[in-house]
């Protein structure tokens, strides 16, 4: 099982998005936070910017949709060039139908949980997904402190993935840094979003390599990853 590091463009300079996207070559995916000022109290970017980003970089786009009416919008992000589309279960009217639609369009389907949303009610839905995102901050802003209290939810989700023998990726997003990434990997995450820890560094590509090495080290000794 390989570690994946996804820098979040939210912490980049929006006036130089193409340059900032290519500054993290070597990253697995570029994480793109779409916010509508309704689902979260912040406004970022939409479909036209995702289309331009998809043309500007060879790194696949991991679009994290923090928007209302996501059943209607998510397919447009696949059309815009996203390789993975994450919708929030709190915003989706029909999560299974939406995941199937995203997959049918040829992208990876992913579902996110806000910190207060438990995983247990969605156990039967996991087989419909390619990735589950556990938010480790309240969605809306970069640069917030990691919520340690999310670690048991990460552990529990990893147990459910193992119990059902699924290939689902488990992503964490929010406050992931050199200080917290090992705890996330030990608990069961294998896909790590990092905004300020990457774009706040002098050398973003080196920050990606350092985070990957830390997470790989922690995963190699984690009980959940033994035998993978
Ligand atoms: O989705 C979000 C915030 O809502 C994230 O993707 C942030 O962009 C992560 O930023 P850092 O916490 O790593 O600075
Ligand atoms: Co995000």
From TrEMBL:
UniProt cofactor note: Binds 1 divalent metal cation per subunit.
Single annotated GO MF: D-ribulose-phosphate 3-epimerase activity
PROSITE patterns membership: RIBUL_P_3_EPIMER_1, RIBUL_P_3_EPIMER_2
Catalytic reaction(s) noted: D-ribulose 5-phosphate = D-xylulose 5-phosphate
Domain of life per record: Bacteria
Pathway: Carbohydrate degradation
Chain residues that bind a divalent metal cation: 31, 33, 64, 173
Alphabetical keyword list: Carbohydrate metabolism, Isomerase, Metal-binding
EC number: 5.1.3.1
Protein name stated in the entry: Ribulose-phosphate 3-epimerase
Lineage, top ranks: Bacteria, Bacillati, Actinomycetota, Actinomycetes, Kitasatosporales
Name of the gene this protein is made from: rpe
């Amino acid at each position: 099982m390989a570690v994946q590091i996804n820098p979040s463009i939210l912490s980049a300079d929006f006036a130089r998005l193409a340059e900032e996207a290519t500054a993290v070559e070597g990253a697995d995916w570029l994480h793109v936070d779409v916010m509508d000022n309704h689902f979260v109290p912040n406004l970022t970017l939409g479909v036209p910017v995702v289309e331009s980003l998809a043309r500007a970089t060879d790194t696949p786009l991991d679009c994290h949709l923090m928007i209302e009416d996501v059943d209607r919008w998510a397919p447009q992000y696949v059309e815009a060039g996203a390789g993975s589309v994450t919708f929030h279960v709190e915003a989706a009217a029909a999560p299974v139908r939406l995941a199937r639609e995203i997959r049918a369009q040829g992208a990876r389907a992913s579902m996110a949980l806000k910190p207060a949303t438990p995983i247990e009610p969605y156990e039967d839905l996991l087989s419909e997904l390619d990735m589950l995102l556990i938010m480790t901050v309240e969605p809306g802003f970069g640069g917030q402190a990691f919520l340690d209290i999310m670690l048991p939810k990460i552990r529990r989700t990893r147990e459910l993935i193992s119990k059902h023998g699924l290939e689902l990726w488990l992503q964490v997003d929010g406050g992931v840094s050199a200080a917290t990434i090992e705890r996330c990997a030990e608990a069961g995450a294998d896909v790590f979003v990092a905004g300020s820890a990457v774009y706040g560094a002098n050398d973003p590509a080196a920050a990606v390599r350092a985070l990957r090495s830390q997470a790989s080290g922690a995963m190699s000794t984690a009980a959940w990853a033994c035998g993978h």
